Amino acid sequence: MNNLKKIVLLIAFFFGIISISSQKITTQEIVKPSEGKSLVYFLRTGAGPLLNFRIYDNDKFLGALSGFKYLVYECEPGQHVFWAASENRDYIEANLEPNAVYVLNAEGQMGAFIASVGFLPLNPNEFRDRRTFYQVVKGAKKQDYALTDVDKSENIQKGLQKYEDLKAGNSKKIKVLDASWKFENADKPIKQ
Fold it and tell me: With bands split at pLDDT 50, 70 and 90, how would you rate the model's confidence at 139?
């Protein structure tokens, strides 16, 4: 009986290898920007998936992302300050190039009372970042970008004041998106 188990396992292993090697690499097309524009994907991953993280471009409210969804935002190239808000606020400075696609991740982290947000630029040269982008775009629901009638002016004012305070103090808490971190596709990453 013990030998029979070994033979069955060996056959299962053999057929498993054949089926794995015959699988195709999946490619997920990503949205490209209009000519002369830039495109930013905002992902929502991590802890507290039921909580919304509010996403902004400078003084413009883009939307609220809850767990494992993403938002696609087309904008003018050039200087931007993207920020996410929850229990805290986190900032990314970016100088976007035209005809380029960038990815930012609003990652839920354990906060004092609710999930806080860690806002991170993703690097297409890093396996972990490519995998995160692929998993979210492939499996998550796209959330439509829509302006809302809800007055966010007070939150925007406080958020931008906090950014200015951090900037004046030369804080290392403000992250920078490298303009060369352009995503060309959402291919399933292969660890090399």
Answer: confident
